[in-house]
Amino acid sequence: MKFIPPFGLGTFRLKDQVAVDSVRTGLELGYRHIDTAQIYGNEAEVGQAIADSGVARDELFVTTKVWTENLGSGRVLPSLRESLQRLGLERVDLTLIHWPSPNDEIPVAQYLGELLEAKRQGLTAAIGVSNFTIAHLREAIEAVGVDEIATNQVEIHPLLQNRKLVTFARQQGIHLTAYMPLAYGKVLAEPEIQRIAAAHGASPAQVALAWSLQQGYTVIPSSTKRENLAANLAAAELRLSTEDMAAIEALDRGERVANPGFAPRWD
């Protein structure tokens, strides 16, 4: 598979023309990694923006995610085919299981086995998981082998550093993608982040994103404003010092933003 680009454009909560405009602007600015999901209800809009952009398909990295309702026996592949139809693509670069089956009603081995079959059939270049705990990752490794798990996409930002999970993933050699890397703006209000930003002549968002990037995570922030999309992308140029990184590390307080009722028991 292609290497997962470290900087992506998230599309969670973006609907209709807003989704089209955000992705189109992102592609104009140089984003080449677009992250969507079945449940976002915007795969068709993402596909439209990609088609309109004129960017060559082999320059793009497109991720989608299989929703929990499609984890049942025989549902993974048809649902992915439907996603491809909406996206207007023959295949995606990465398909993730969006959440483990609620209450583990469906075994990890079953739906990951089906997702691996989707890869074999050429519907997706790579497969991975999202919102998987250590226990779920162990099951995933047992089911398909660690080399098949391209990433675990989880909530990580300065206020929720998810260290237990991060340590386990690193021990296993599993890449991590940090979603909600700005915790919906909560991170930007932190005085310590603001202080570091001022010292670097950067924005608080750029500091938070640089913190994730320097740890080897892929980040997928979203925005609807051109200036924010451009500023976020520029975070890749910012280098934080060891002192900066340590100061941000001290902000961890387990503050989770994404915690729906069907979420697993977190580590």
UniProtKB/TrEMBL annotation:
Superkingdom to which the source organism belongs: Bacteria
Q: Which InterPro entries match?
A: AKR (IPR020471), Aldo/ket_reductase_CS (IPR018170), NAD(P)_OxRdtase_dom_sf (IPR036812), NADP_OxRdtase_dom (IPR023210)
The catalytic residues are Y40 (proton donor)
* Any one of the GO BP annotations: methylglyoxal catabolic process
- Catalysed reaction(s)? hydroxyacetone + NADP(+) = methylglyoxal + NADPH + H(+)
Under the heading Pfam families, the entry gives: Aldo_ket_red
PROSITE patterns listed in its UniProt record = ALDOKETO_REDUCTASE_1
* Location of the NADP-dependent oxidoreductase domain: 8-252
Q: Where does substrate bind?
A: H98
In this chain, the site described as Lowers pKa of active site Tyr is at K65
- Keywords, alphabetical: NADP, Oxidoreductase
What are the recorded GO MF terms, alphabetically?
methylglyoxal reductase (NADPH) (acetol producing) activity
Family assignment from sequence similarity:
Belongs to the aldo/keto reductase family.
NCBIfam families per UniProt: PRK11172.1 (NF008377)
Q: What is this protein called?
A: 2,5-diketo-D-gluconate reductase B
Source organism per entry reads Ectopseudomonas guguanensis
